[in-house]
Amino acid sequence: MAASSRDRVDLPGTVVTGRIGVTMTTAAKVLVVEDEAPLARVVAEYLRRAGFDVITSGDGAEAVNLARVFDPDVVVLDLGLPGLDGVEVCRQLRTFSSCYVLMLTARAEEIDKLVGLSVGADDYLTKPASMRELVARVQVLLRRPRTHSAAGIDGILRFGDLVVDVEAREVSVAGRPVELTRTEFDLLAALAARPRMVFTRRQLIDAVWGPSWVGDEHVVDVHIGHVRRKLGDDAEEPKYIRTVRGVGYRMGSGT
Ligand code: CA
Fold first, then answer.
1. 59 CA distance to ligand 1 centroid (A)?
2. Which residues are CB-neighbours of 173 under 8 A, at least 6 positions away?
3. Are residues 98 and 194 in contact, defined by beta-carbon separation less than 8 angstroms?
4. Domain 147-251, CATH among 1.10.10.10, 3.30.40.10, 1.10.3370.10, 1.20.1540.10
5. Out of 26, 130, 212, 239, which residue is the most buried by the measure of CB atoms under 10 Å away?
6. Is the pLDDT reported for residue 5 higher than 90?
7. pLDDT in tens, 196-213
8. CATH number of this structure's domain 5-143, picked from the four choices 3.10.20.30, 3.40.50.2300, 1.10.3720.10, 3.30.420.60
9. Are the beta carbons of 144 and 117 closer than 8 angstroms?
């Protein structure tokens, strides 16, 4: 997705690219994932009236595949889905998308649990939700500065003296270029794109090798080891990539 489409959202679906003073209208895209078809239709209708480009899905696995193609700005995600539930859909979305996720839950108590699980949703709403409230929440998300992504509008991720240029696929430390293999770069870029998120090995495999990859998930550790060595990072006292014991990896210094 174009970084410039995040620049500033003044009206629903209207993106103003302030830097060069050119105004273009691009509807922000919303994917609604809800298995109750009548509710999905109502939500989609309200969002369309508010100016959004909306598609719907009633199935978690299908929603993940749709998101890869549709590249939504916001996913309105029901927690209770048949098959792949909302938590798992959210986790999978996070491996390749920086979209906002507004999670719908049937019970308020579920929200605390989900926040505790660090599922990675950006906001939560209890069902039955007023449609006015739902649309307002989506609009608020799009106005939020993207603090959970370290990418500037130039698509460059910075962590201290580490610079990851996602577009050019270039990495440098303190101005010194670092040569990474394709897999190593993709791993680093996946971690760097969501710096607050703790990735499991499986999530990194999904992001880099693809969801159909089967094998020993510790292959991730081997490649992370190479990335650390090339960045001059230390697993014991990391500056860039932290090991989260029993879980996986995330960006950040310290242990
Ligand atoms: Ca449901």
1. 10
2. 161, 162, 163, 231, 232
3. yes
4. 1.10.10.10
5. 239
6. no
7. 788 889 889 888 887 778
8. 3.40.50.2300
9. no
Residue 14 CA to residue 25 CA, distance in Å, equals 5
Q: Is the pTM of this model over 0.90?
A: no
- Tokens representing residue 159 in the block: 């962590």
User: Six-digit token pair at 70?
Assistant: 């549709």
**Cα of 140 to ligand 1 centre, how many Å?**
24
Q: Which residues pair with 126 in a beta bridge?
A: 105
CA angle 157, 162, 165 (to 5 degrees): 40
Q: How far is the CA of 80 from the centre of ligand 1 (A)?
A: 4
Question: Does residue 19 surpass a pLDDT of 50?
Answer: no
DSSP 8-state assignment for residue 120: -
How many Cα atoms within 13 Å fall on the side-chain side of residue 119?
24
